[in-house]
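Final report, closing paragraph on structural work. Over the funding period we assembled a curated collection of sequence-structure pairs, and we close with a single example.
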Amino acid sequence: MHHSLYISEVLGLIFWFVRHWDDQPYQGTRVGKKTLASLARTCHLFSSPALDALWHDLDSFDPLLKIFPIATSIVDDTRWSTFRKYAKRVKTFRGLKTRVPVQAKQEFITSLQNCPQACFPLLPNVTELEWSELSLLGYFACPAVTTVTLSFTRWLAHSSAELAVLADLPRLCPNVTSFTVILRFSWDYEPSREVGRMVTQWPRLKTLRTCGIQQPVMDLLFSRQILESLYIDYHGSSHVYTGKIPETVRELTLGADSPSSCTRFLETAYASPTKFRLLIGMNEGQEDAHVEETFRVLPRRLDTSRLLSLAIRPTSTIAGIPMWHTLGLREPLVSTLVEFTALRELDLDLLCTVQMSDADYECLARSLTHLRSLKLGTANPSITRPWPVASVKAIIAVLRYCQHLETLHMVFDGSIPPPGASTMQDGKVALSEALVCQGWGVSNRHITMLRVGYSPIKDATINALASCFKSMMPRLVHIEHTARDEEWRLVQTILELY
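Its predicted structure, as stored:
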């Protein structure tokens, strides 16, 4: 065995990489965990660090059930020793997607009620806890926990005993720095008071996702000058915050059930984040005037000189999932975005941008010259597939003014030849050698991948587009497209030949 493997830090690093094999899409199912289990049985030297890596993250309740000593109340029982051997290694417990069978859960709870106090907490070293079963929450909570994520379907569906466990969470987990509560289908009741009482008891709280909570609670949280990330799920009947959100809140997310709710919240608050996400609940047939009003209020309520990252996404009012065909980017909205001159990242990938003209793109790019990432409309699936107005001229304008771009997603009409191109007798579009060498006065050496979404293209422009892109973006090697068009695959093939 190589002598470097006797260094615990080196061995731990190797097993850490093995643990993350399961994160790779090309790997087989649970290859990393299976490998770590084999390594733990290889030799005494590998056993402990391999088990640490194997049990570090739990995304299911099943491994605990399999080793839990059911029907025993004796602390010295060997089954308890086995359970603690593995349980003490768990650092992250994600059970949001776990659906514990009723019978198994009841047996588990019955056994827990007979367990001596010395056996609790069950996971003494867990730092990150994601859970939805309130009846079991108290058994996993411990002082080591710093991150808590809770998801509920309906608040009023829980019993008073379960809600009492939740109210006691700040005492069980006094060192929480990140708290997320996700409420699904809870229109009948918004637990602003209950959540407010909880979060005020965590003096080290830096990250918070919550429903709309009362003004005194928000004032208290802001007065501590510790909160760095705030995510508010806001509904029309929620509490609004009136005043200035401190600059310590660098990341701000507002998820509202309608454009009107977005506007209502923004009109009473002023913020200076460096990163802002706006998730707008949309219904089919939503009036454009409401969306335009939300856009118009953004520059007035956000510090345009500090904002570096802006993302706007339409979502369903029912489940918060992405929505399409309802929020289109066009001139009135573009004129609002140009006020955010300090932006480094602009993500409007879920918006429909087919109505944007070459002039709109140029207007946007001329103002946002510091952009490093621009994503416009390529994640919008557009079942109706409306034909985009913009052409390759839009890409040229964006690259000319945004010279620091590293990421570019755009939808355009690829059937329109690049500027200065000529049509041959066979109908193919050709570019002169001088034009290709000049690159339309543009040269971006940062972009290696261009995403074009559902951009249409014709056989006649394939070679011209490939030459045009390569002359403007010399390091471009990949075209990512959503449509199943053979033409874009041919553009990709031509790029690989350069």
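The chain has 19 helices and 19 strands. The chain has a mean pLDDT of 85. We thank the funder for supporting this effort.
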